[in-house]
Every structure is written in C-alpha cells, then in structure tokens.
Amino acid sequence: MPARWKKDNRPPSLQQFKERFPDDHACAAYLEARRWPNGFVCPSCGSCTGWRLETKRWTWECRDCGRQTSVTAGTVMHGSHVPLRTWFLATHLLATHSNGMSALQLQAKLGLGSYKTAWLLLHKLRRAMVDPGRSTLFGDVEVDETIIPFRTLDDPVVGGQGRSHDGKITVIGAVELLEGNKPGRIRLEVIPDYKGPTLKGFIERNVERGSHIWTDALASYSGLRGYQHTARTIKNMAAHVVMPWIHRVFSNLKRWGLGVFHGFREKYLNAYLGEFVFRWNRRRSYKSAFDRLIGIGVMIIPATRTEIMKQAA
Fold first, then answer.
1. 229: helix, strand or coil
2. Are 85 and 58 in contact (CB under 8 A)?
3. What is the maximum alpha-carbon separation in the chain?
4. Can you tell me the distance from the alpha carbon of 10 to that of 36, in angstroms, rounded to the nearest whole number?
5. Any bridge partners for residue 145, and if so which?
C-alpha cells in the first residue's frame, strides 16, 4: 500500500468530502442514487412504483404492496442511530487512509463519545469491504501459507515451531501474477489446518479453473484438479525467493497489523484480512475507494453487533 499518493490516484481531501456531503440530506440523496440508480425498486415485491413520504425522512412507500423502505434499510447502515454524515465520514476516512485506522483512532477522528460505537462502525464497514459478487483470481497465481503469532499490546509473542499451530494463526493467501512480473489482486483466509481439502478448497473458491497455480511442494496440494499446477521444491532457497509476491503480501500484512493494530487477535482476523485485501486490490484506485465501499455497503446483508461478535467466535 502506497506511502505517497500518485497524482492521478490521490483520494479526495477532507475539505472536498465536506463540500460534496455538507449534511445528512446530501448523504441520503447520494445513497438513494447508489441504491436505486434507475429509480425506486421495492425490496419486498420488486415494484418500481412508489413515492417518498413527507412524514418520514428518506423513506419510500411501495404503491403495490404498501411496504415502507428507508434508503438505509437493508444496507450496512441498517438500524443505526448514527447520523448519515458520520457514517459517510467514517467511510471516507477508512477508504482513503492509506494504512487504515483502529477503532480508537476512528473514535477520535469522528468525535464519538463511545468507543463501542466506533468499534461497531468499523466492523460493519469492514464487512462491506468484502464484495459478495467479486470475481475470482485467474491466470498465473501464487499460493502459499503463513503463520501469524498472537501478538497484542497486552499479550506476549508466543508460537510453536514450523507448521505447529501453538499460539499461532494460520493464513493462506493467493496473488495473481500480471505481465511484467507484477502482482495483481489477492485473497487471504484463515485456515484451521494444512490438510488437502482445506488448501485445495481455498483455491477452488478463489481461483478460476484452468488457471496456473504455483505452490511449494507440500503434499496437501497434490491432486489439484481443474488447474495447471506447478509445485516448487524450496530446499535450501528461501521461500520468498521461490515465490516472491505472495511472501511480499504476507510481509506487508504482518507489518500493517503491528503498525496499525499492535498485532492481530485470532477472533477478528478474517475481518482484518478483508480490509487488507480491499486496500491491496484498490491500491491503484484509491480515488474511487469511497464510492466502491458505499456501493458494496448497499448490497450486503446487514449485521448487528451480536451477529458480528458471534461470527468471530
């Protein structure tokens, strides 16, 4: 992720954001346009005929079934009492900040009185960073695993040796290889073990069939069907020399975790991975990251605090 913005990829400034979204009404108008670009569509019956209610702000009523729907209903902002502009500012900060931020930092930036509110905003927006309709990786793809020791400000660094799971979080990753030996999009996921069904299942979910998969010689990758597969023997060479780009991804991930969050906790690691993938895959398009994040946010199934915590358990 860039330390300095290129001119054509520089995200909007805070002043530009304020001019674009001066109040909640401007935010609601934008959200309505993103949710219903071709006009109102009832989420209940699919009717395209309805009208705005004057007695309820930002709410439509369907002519055919009578259901009332606000512009935030069924989105990442569903059921929230936080002002729309605060949601938008949080989205702007998270999408355009090159390294992201912790809930404590977001609380300070937004001037929120409650840490829990900032935490919930952050985790809901992280859910919106994972596009349910995203396309799979394709072409030449490096795949490998890494281990991340449990490390926070309060806990010591622990971890067993080699592929031992003691005190470690195991992550598998994949990165596209583009022309000129440049990295493309990535995928990351927490895995419970190194067994064949686990590793091959990750590939099948995230990489288009027919692609060329490059891995190390771990036996669990053998028998991979539907792909061209090259297994490289590491031996005396360092893994980052044999498969440089996936290990660059892992290195950046670990530095990011320590620098922004002071280490990862296993419970919410998949949420952090989703954010890192979003940032990496849009490192050349930060200018449009805000619009993309809002766009995903109007499509995903909303979640409550209880559901977020339960999913991480």
1. strand
2. no
3. 72
4. 28
5. 172
d(CA 277, CA 282): 8
Residue 277 CA to residue 267 CA, distance in Å, equals 18
- Name 69's Cβ contacts closer than 8 Å, sequence gap at least 6: 42, 43, 44, 59, 60, 61, 62
Amino acid letter, 185: R
Per-residue b or e along 6-45, where b marks 16 or more CB atoms closer than 10 Å to that residue's CB: eeeeebbeeeebeeebeebeebbebbbebbbeeebbbeee
* Residues sharing a CB contact under 8 Å with residue 201, sequence separation 6 or more, in sequence order: none
Backbone angles phi, psi at 187, to 5 degrees: -140, 145
Which backbone phi and psi does 177 adopt, to 5 degrees? Answer: -110, 120
Helix (H, G, I), strand (E, B) or coil at 189: strand
Asked whether residue 159 carries a pLDDT value surpassing 60, the answer given is no
8 A C-beta contact, residue 248 and residue 238: no
Residue 216 CA to residue 150 CA, distance in Å, equals: 25
Residues in the chain: 313
Q: Are strands 212-216 and 140-149 parallel, antiparallel or unpaired?
A: parallel
Going by their DSSP bridges, the two strands 68-70 and 59-62 should be labelled as antiparallel
- Cα 158 from Cα 164, distance rounded (Å): 12
* Residue 57 per-residue DSSP state: T
Q: What is the pLDDT of the chain when averaged over all its residues?
A: 88
Start-to-end CA distance of the chain, whole Å, equals 29
Q: Which domains does the chain have, with CATH numbers?
A: 140-265 (3.30.420)
44's CB contacts (< 8 A; 6+ apart) are 62, 65, 67, 69
How do residues 61-108 score in pLDDT, each as one tens digit? 999 999 999 999 999 999 999 999 999 999 999 988 878 899 999 999
Rounded to whole angstroms, how far apart are CA atoms 170 and 147? 5
